[in-house]
Amino acid sequence: MNLIEKIIANHSKFKTVKPGDIVDIEIDVRAARDFGGANVVKNIKDNNLGIDDVSKTFFTFDCNPTGSDQKYAINQQIIRIFARKHGIKVFDIDNGIGTHTMMAEGLAYSGATAVTTDSHANILGAIGAFGQGMGDKDIAAAFSNGKVWFKVPKSVKINFVGKRPKNVSAKDIVLNLLNIFGANTLLAYSVEIYGDEADKLTLDERITIASMGTEMGAIIIFFTPNEKIMKYSEEKSGRKLELIKADDNAEYEKVYDIDISKFVPMVSRPGKPHDTVNIEEEKKIKIDSAFIGSCTNGRIEDMHIVAQALKGKKVAPGVVLKIVPATDEVWKQCLDEGLINIFKEAGALVSNAGCAGCAAGQVGQNGPGEITISTGNRNFPGKQGKGSVYLASPESTVASAIAGYITSIDDIPEKPATFSSEIQKEKFKKITKEKTKYQQKPTIVEGRVWYIKEDNVDTDMIFHNRYIAITDINEMGQYTFDNLKGYEDFSKKANPSDIIVIQKNFGSGSSRQQAVDCFKALGIQAILAESFGAIYERNAINAAFPIMTYKSIKELEIKNGDIIRANFTSGVITNISNGKYVQGEKFSEVQLEIYQNGGLF
Fold first, then answer.
1. Could you tell me if 60 and 33 are in contact, meaning their C-beta atoms sit under 8 angstroms apart?
2. Model confidence over 315-334: pLDDT tens digits?
3. Sign of CA dihedral 555, 532, 500, 453
4. What is the pLDDT of residues 402-445, one digit of tens each?
5. Strand ranges, E, within 416-554
6. What is the pLDDT of residue 438?
7. Which option is the CATH number for 277-403: 1.10.3720.10, 3.30.230.70, 1.25.40.10, 3.30.499.10?
C-alpha cells in the first residue's frame, strides 16, 4: 500500500484498503476552529450527541485571534462555555494556527489522523500525518463517534530530480508545481513527494508546500518524515513513534518526474493561485501593502528570512508591511531573538499569531484598488479584501515591501519607489458659488409615535459598531435599533413619517454619523427627547435631521401609535389623538437654517 492507504488501513477494521473503498476511520485528533466551531456545538446539542474521547477532542481559535469581530467573539464564547462543560481543551486566541498547534503539541505525527474545520488541515502531510478539513456535521460526528467515513482516494507520486536552485524557496517550489499541474490535474488525488531534494526539505519548508495542496485540488500532499522530523515529533509528543511509510511495491495511479533544477522564483497573479508566472514578468508593479504570514509562511524560518532582509532597512514610503507569525511559539521566538525589534524599526506592523489575512476582518485585509503582495495561499477575489493580491515567497514579499514594487530578493533597489503626487501645480482660484435656493421644508410634521421609555440609549444600541464600515445610507436603515432590547425588529415595523419620542441622553457614546443616518434611511420624520448626547445633537442638526428637546411630556399622555405633531418654529408638541399639547424647545436660528439648507453642506 501507499502512504494514505496504509494510514487509513491502520485506522480501520481492514488490513488493506484500495482506491474507491469507503471505510470508517478512527480519528486521533478531532478539532474545530472558531470558524465553524459554534456550528459543531449546535449540531451536537441539537442531536443530543455525546463526546467520544475528550483527550482527543480540541477547539482552536485561529481565524480571529484578535477578537476584533463581534460574531467571532460570540462564537468563541459559545465554544468556551461548551468546552468547560465537557472538559475539552481550548487552544484560545493567544495560541495561533490550529494545524500548526497539532504538530507543535505532538497531537499529530507520522501516521496519525486528524480532522478539523480548516480546509488546510492537509498541511499535516508535512509530517506524514493524514489531515482533512471537513464541514461542521462531519466534525460533530467525529467528536461524538470518534470516527468518520472516508473514500480511499487514488494516489500520485511526484519525484523531484535535479538540484534545487539556490534562489528558489519552498514557496517557489509549490508555485512552480501549481504552474505545472494547475488547479485540477491533481484533483481528488493523494500526492506523495520523493527525491533527494525532497528529503532535504526542513519541516517549515514541507509545511509551506503541503499547505497549498488544497489550491491544487489535492486531497493531501505527503512527505515521508526524515530522521530529524521524527525526532521533532517524538520530542513534542513525549513518546517513541513508529515511522509510517509507503511500501516499496506501493501502487500509484500516476508517477511524475519533475526537474526541480528548472524551477524559478514565481508569483501568482491576482484572482487565481494557479495563475503563476516567473516573477520577472511582474517586476516593477507598484504595491500598496505586503503581508507575511498564514499557515503557509508564518514559521520561524520565514521570520528569519524577513528579518535578515529588513535589518538596517525601511519599508518603502506609503507601503504597509504586515507580519503575523503562525503560532505564539514563533512569536515568542521572534521576541527572544530580537526579530520583533527589527520588524518595528523597519516600519512593519506585527500582530499576534493566527491566520490573519486569510480570515476576513483581520490584519492583512486590503481595500478597493489596493495592490498587495502576500505569502498567503489564496488570492481569490474578496478572500483577502477588495483589492488585488499577488502570492509570493517571503523573500520576494519582503523585497517588494522594501522596494515599493514587486521584485525579487536579489534585486532590491538602493532607493525605493514612491507614490507620485497627483496635485496639480497651478494655483487654485477661489470659486464663489451662488447660493442655491432650496424648496422650503415643512416646519410642522405629523406622524405615528413610537414612545420608547428609555434613558441613555447609546449609539451602539441605535446602530451597532459591527456595521460602522457601511457608508451607503440606503443600507443603514435595516440595522436601526437592532441592539436595543425589545426593538430589534424596529426597522421592519417602522413606517416612513413615524416620529420617535424617547427620554434622557439619547445618542450618547460614539461619534458615528450612521446613528443619525439610519433614521433618515427609514424615513423617520423626527426624534423628540428630553436630552441628546452632545455629539449626536450636532450630527443630527448637520444632517438636517429634525430633533427637538422637551422638559416634560407627561401631560401629552402618549401611547404607542398615537398621532403627534411637532412644530419646529414654535416648539409646540401636540398629541392629536387626544388634543393635549406641551411646549418644547424650538429650532434655533442655526438649526433652522441648516435644516432648510438640506444639511451643513
1. yes
2. 999 999 999 999 999 999 99
3. negative
4. 999 999 999 999 999 988 766 555 554 555 555 555 678 999 99
5. 444-452, 499-502, 526-529, 547-549
6. 61
7. 3.30.499.10
Q: Which region holds residue 434: left if phi is over 0, alpha if psi is between -120 and 50, else beta?
A: beta
Q: Alpha-carbon distance 548 to 567, whole Å?
A: 9
User: CA torsion 121→122→124→125, rounded to 10°?
Assistant: 180
DSSP string for 390-403 = EE--HHHHHHHHHH
Is the CATH number 3.40.190.10 carried by domain 444-597? no
CA distances to 175, 176, 209, 424 from 274, rounded to whole Å, are: 7, 9, 14, 41
Instruction: Give me the residues of the chain with pLDDT under 50, please.
Output: 428
d(CA 456, CA 537): 14
Q: Which residues contact 34 (CB under 8 A, 6 or more apart)?
A: 59, 60, 61, 62, 63, 64, 72, 75, 76, 79
Question: Is 277-403 the same fold as 3-261?
Answer: yes
3-261 CATH: 3.30.499.10
Total number of residues shown for the chain: 601
Q: What is the pLDDT of residue 424?
A: 53
